[in-house]
Amino acid sequence: MRLKDKVALVVGAGSSRPGMGNGKATAMLFAREGARVVASDKNLAAAEETVRLIRGEGGEAIAVQANVTIEADAKRMVETAVAKYGRLDVVFNNVGIGEGHPGLNVTEAEWDAVMGTNLKSILFTCKYAVPELIKAGGGTIVNNASMAAYYSYPIYAYAVSKAGVIALTRCLAAGFARNNIRVNCVSPGLMDTSMAAGIQTDSRRRTVEERVPLKRQGTAEETAQTVLFLASAESSYITGQTIIVDGGQIIR
Prior knowledge:
Layout: E1 7-11, H1 22-32, E2 36-41, H2 44-56, E3 60-65, H3 71-85, E4 90-93, H4 108-135, E5 139-144, H5 156-176, E6 181-188, H6 202-211, H7 220-231, E7 242-245
Parallel strand pairs: 1-2, 1-4, 2-3, 4-5, 5-6, 6-7
């Protein structure tokens, strides 16, 4: 088991819609690999559903309600994890939204909401998680970005926020390497997840056919496998990096 006896915090561990999202799939995989999982989500019922699935497979997990765009909630979430399990070893920052008008039609409220959810949430989670990782002798952080950071994506707020996630990942990696903390990023492409359920259009399917060499969308489980690699000792000499999970789209 690659995470045996580790305590793993998954932020955004519930699915926003029915089905499997990256956070839920990762929380479940972490548990299968021996971690005690703290499943956090703004929607407590969604986090509890993930915990129910983990416990149904014989794993150990607790659910925590937290809106990590609020600093006090991020602090309480980390404190709850440590109070329950005594330490923290792994953090997966998975919270994200892709809402807003395209291009310069974005509103101030939309821009602020996307930046707060996709970027500020990681900053505040790490602000309180990193000291606990240091106490544990080191650990790993994995942040969820997006291939939108690499393209001329029409939803400016989403693309810019995800580029910011990659930049923040590098800053954290350089800043805390001396504390034996590795920080990396996963960047999914066109994924068939619960979050994407509402945009499974003919246009999206044509994009997959034309631009993805593997000729299909990825799954939440495939994202989770990459996150597990980055969270485990198998990637012990990797930090400050972004692994692209896009079926080869970036090479087209």
